[in-house]
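A note from the maintainers: we've had questions about how concatenated examples are separated. There is no special marker in the raw files; a new sequence line simply starts the next protein. For clarity in this README we add a label.
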Amino acid sequence: LLSDLEGCQARRVLLFVEQSYSATLARKLRISGKHRNVALVSGAPWGTTFSQFWGTLRPSQCLIDHLRKVPSTPRMPESGLGLLNVTLSGAPCNATPPLTEAEMRKEYMGCQNLPTALWYQQVHRQEETQD
């Protein structure tokens, strides 16, 4: 994962990780000089499950505001907190005037991480249908 993200040109990469070794990943990201655009959000010490907590996030809600609703927000370097000062789709927080739904779709909702294998399956099905 770290080598995949090394040198990534995205302004920010948000990693939502709930796994046994997330502390190891957090430590490696913290000491790395090649992952300054990566923010790791892991663990759910808040009395809910990780997916339940993030499942309550509204699309227009700022990630950092969502985290601050909980008194025991996980510690994160200041650079990581700055990376979380956006909505889940990467739109700026508290835009004035607020972004319209059309602006959100056009400017911030187009980038997705789709595994190559899933993409290929869809392309392959379309080719079979056309034949």
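[label: protein 2]
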Amino acid sequence: TTYKMSCLLLNDIIKDMESDKTTPVLKFAHEETVMPLLTLLGLFYDGEIMTHKMKDWKNRKMRVARVTPFAGNVAFVKQSCPGDNIPRIQVLVNEKEVKSSSLQ
């Protein structure tokens, strides 16, 4: 299923982030892979399941055409500060930083 595929991909990304690699790790996929990954990470969640009864359709965060347009992309950037042993992961969707409580 799509959910299982996203879990495998996320586990692979986490392994790459936990490694000591200093070279970029690039993965390429279609929107059908990217969108479930973003959903698994809890990004662009509006606080309620989207249905026809949603009150505020116009201002919702989840807009498929904006989140995964043609050539949409997701980047996980591992950063570290001198003297700090805790790496920081920056998440970018379509070259824009995305902050989410689910990623902290």
